[in-house]
Amino acid sequence: MKPEKALIFEMSRPGRVAYSLPECDVPEIDAASVIPSELLRGKPAELPEVYEVDVIRHYTELSRRNFGVDNGFYPLGSCTMKYNPKINEDVARFAGFAKIHPYQPEESIQGALELLYTLQNDLAALTGMDQVTLQPAAGAHGEWTGLMLIRAYHESRGEHRMKVIVPDSSHGTNPASATVAGFETVTIKSNERGMVDLDALRAAVGSDTAALMLTNPSTLGLFEEQIVEIAKIVHDAGGLLYYDGANSNAIMGIARPGDMGFDVVHLNLHKTMSTPHGGGGPGAGPVGVKSKLTPFLPKPIVSRREDGTYYWDTDRPQSIGRVKAFYGNFGILVRAYTYIRTYGPDGLRRVSECAVLNANYMMHRLAPYYEVAYPGVCKHEFVLSGKRLKAYGVRTLDVAKRLLDFGYHPPTIYFPLNVEESIMIEPTETESKDTLDAFIDTMIRIAKEAETDPQLVLNAPYSTVVKRLDETTAARKPVLNCTCG
Amino acid sequence: MIKHRYLPMTEQDETEMLKAVGVNSVEELFVDIPQSVRYEGIMPMSGALNEPALLKHMRQLSDRNADFDRYTSFMGAGIYDHHIPVVINHVISRSEFYTAYTPYQPEISQGELQAIFEFQSYVCELTGMKVANASMYDGATALAEAAALASAATKRKRVVVSRTVHPEAREILLTSARGLGLEVVEVGYVNGITDLAELEAAITDDTAAVLVQTPNFFGCLEDIRPIEKLIHASKGLLVMSVNPLSLGLLESPGELGADVVVGDAQPLGIPASLGGPTCGFFAVSEPLMRRIPGRIVGQTVDSEGKRGFVLTLQAREQHIRREKATSNICSNQALLALCASVYMSTLGKEGIREAALLNLRKSHYASGRVEGSNAFSLSFTAPFFNEFVVKLPAGAEAGSMNAKLLKAGYIGGYDLGVAYPELAGHLLVAVTERRTKEEIEGFFREMEACL
């Protein structure tokens, strides 16, 4: 086992430096000569004193204690851990994208504006919507933005609709976003097939319904077959339909949210559009809307003049306002646009076909060993239950930990909440049959280990830099930094 | 069949896999999608390009933007042209970091978890606060989250914000206040800093928080101590938005009595990138620990007693609390927090002070140049860090000045008339450590020539 890794603060030796700053070619005034002394810092911030080699070795060692898509298979359900193309990274670092200021004159950023304008249109085409804002920084941020748009829409019609309906299988961000947008959440049960229970929906909708939020395919990996009926029920009640695009990797070019009846949609570009997940961000969560909602979009959006020049369109009197400083996570939008251009519309359709075939193949091969929560065809992901192994004292968590020893990132576990001991697997399209087969064989092996030698599974992992960690103490007696202050 | 460098599926694979599934075609895997919602056409979007053509296309788009390598920038207003140590890009290019997601499986994510733990530590050191989170989308959205926290913590629905806070942060605050049902009261400024008399009048017994920024949007340093007394006297919270680099020199918000400290880490080694992605930070005093939004990493031990790190205090978060959550943030800006951490590791205790001092010296050299000019004057006399406001002579228009400066190779200052109608004809000028004496001289010469 590897020894503990020192914190960079613990590596500090007074007098070492890792920086090289520009020279001071102006008079070396004292800070106290221009700033009242009571506004100056009394004691210095105790940042570590290290040299450049320390910095590089420290973070290189930290990186070696981390696992990304480039390290191996990462079938984390609902997160779409597909390959992050290297060209995306290279182009986002071009000076003309990385070294430009949001307040530069429009004539000095025409290339950036053209990119944003084109991406707005491309995402509108992909989702079947009429207009797109690129401002939201992440999926949850997009949800909140979309709900604020829905709120503004109803208010503009003089309607007071404050309830948002979500299925019990929805992402936790859905109800949380509804709350932050000022709505009350109504959770409805799924039926025995994992679909929206239409009777429950009919009972829930009314004159106070603002919207139904739906992920389609759902977090169970199932396409909601009753979508046309659902849209009718919600629309007839005067509500709108919100599409959580977390799972759109399954349906690109095959079925568009706009054609299903959705009025508002967000996409997670760090999922479907391959921009990297960054260890937890930055992402981007653009929101697309039908034309009846475009007046309310955050400002500015990018527009094109007849002479072919582009500009920030801020003249939007009904806009909900601003949701993010400047114009969103531009560097991520550059990567997403680059990705779209590696595939084009036909290629993106093929992406979804391959993602769905990979998922169905895995589901069928694993079905004899782990119970499939909802049999039938799945879309980009599927949910297994590990409950059969409970007879041997082994839980889903243990299976996940055992997978670490074979060099895999485990699937999403214990979500969705409505499947016992759930294991949610999303292979994505960028994994080969060889990789899938090796993973499947490992899952089968672990199921057998659970029967014949459960202790082996219960004590896993064996190969990682730390063993299972004490999360209870971490939460009860929090140590959240290493400062002495 | 489409062949693509990111797609491994061969015809043989496809045949074998379909057979294993028990279907005859990929099409059969989509039988659950009703025909009426199927998309049959070719989506009207940008077409595919091969790799060399795509590189060329992206280079062409990039070349149509005036970047800091080719133009000299005096633009700040929240995004700055600072030196980015070269090691940063090497660290964040390690794909173990950038191709991972949120560290849900701590045993194979100790690198990211420790990096976040160190980021939290850096933020606490700089701000003088007890607890910091893993990051927010940006400084502006962090401020809106701070207002939400203050409202929840005090059970009050009114926040007071100074007009010297970044205009875009105030716009976002207004948007989110509508969702949360908060009342937002703005107070004005005198000589570039918050009008204390107006602030005092605006603080009531039902005020959840005062939101101030220092250095503020005009670059001026707010006088925090009297503000702290006023808001704490009415049992509200003091929320400070700060420029982290300035804290190399300026008194820490913790020492000044702040309850919540937010800001944007862009000055700490993050590219300008048209304003995003950057990285918000969020720090609180100890009593507010369990109200902080977002991810947070804690230290613990493994089953053999070895130190390790985990995501913790998750009972606060949306995936547990669902509709009872007070924030919906999930993905944040981890990779940019890593940029900021590497920056602070590189600068260290001496470097952060030296970098801040360089900004102070160069900007004050530049402001002296304005004072000595016949054409321009300083709008405010309040102390400032690395940004100040220049009043153009009567009749001069900031927008056309910037257009002329651009032709001369400069990205000029921020036209304050856009957000403050009363400050039309005033330019907010930022001078970072990267600007040389020669560039500063050249810039003001050119400004004079533009008149």
Automatic annotation (TrEMBL), chain A:
Glycine dehydrogenase C-terminal domain ranges (all copies): 352-451
EC number(s) from the headed UniProt entry: 1.4.4.2
Top-level enzyme category: oxidoreductase
Keywords: Oxidoreductase, Pyridoxal phosphate
Domain Glycine cleavage system P-protein N-terminal as annotated: residue spans: 33-308
Signal peptide (UniProt feature, chain positions): none
UniProt entry tagged with the keyword Oxidoreductase: yes
Catalysed reaction equations from the record: N(6)-[(R)-lipoyl]-L-lysyl-[glycine-cleavage complex H protein] + glycine + H(+) = N(6)-[(R)-S(8)-aminomethyldihydrolipoyl]-L-lysyl-[glycine-cleavage complex H protein] + CO2
Cofactor: pyridoxal 5'-phosphate
Record-linked Gene3D superfamilies: 6.20.440.10, Aspartate Aminotransferase, domain 1 (3.90.1150.10), Type I PLP-dependent aspartate aminotransferase-like (Major domain) (3.40.640.10)
Modified residues (N6-(pyridoxal phosphate)lysine): K271
Origin: domain of life: Bacteria
GO-annotated molecular function: glycine dehydrogenase (decarboxylating) activity
Alphabetized InterPro entries for the sequence: GcvPB, GDC-P_C, GDC-P_N, GDC_P, PyrdxlP-dep_Trfase, PyrdxlP-dep_Trfase_major, PyrdxlP-dep_Trfase_small
Subunit structure: The glycine cleavage system is composed of four proteins: P, T, L and H. In this organism, the P 'protein' is a heterodimer of two subunits.
Family to which this protein belongs: Belongs to the GcvP family. C-terminal subunit subfamily.
Its biological purpose: The glycine cleavage system catalyzes the degradation of glycine. The P protein binds the alpha-amino group of glycine through its pyridoxal phosphate cofactor; CO(2) is released and the remaining methylamine moiety is then transferred to the lipoamide cofactor of the H protein.
PANTHER family (alphabetical): GLYCINE DEHYDROGENASE (DECARBOXYLATING), MITOCHONDRIAL, GLYCINE DEHYDROGENASE, DECARBOXYLATING
Record-given protein name: Probable glycine dehydrogenase (decarboxylating) subunit 2
Lineage: Bacteria, Bacillati, Bacillota, Bacilli, Bacillales
Gene name of the encoded protein: gcvPB
